[in-house]
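Risk register update: the risk of archive-format incompatibility is retired. Evidence:
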Amino acid sequence: MIIKTHPMNSSNISRAGYDEESKTLEVQFNTGMIYRYDGVPKIMYDEMFKSTSPGGYFRKWIIGGKYKFNKIEKKK
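Archived output:
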C-alpha cells in the first residue's frame, strides 16, 4: 500500500498521511523512521494535522498502545 504523505509543522514528525479505505495513518519522524498505525479514525488524522502541536496530539491520542502499528522503513 502506498500512502501519500504531506509535510507536517512539527519538531518530531516530518510527514504524515492517511488512507481512508484501510484507516491507516502513516507517520515519518524526523529521525527517518516510518510507522503505520491501523484503525485510526480519519478525524484523528485531520485534528493532528490542524493541531498547533502535531507531535503532542500524536503522543496523547495515537501512541501508547491505543493502535496497532508496524515499523515500515527508515528513509535516508
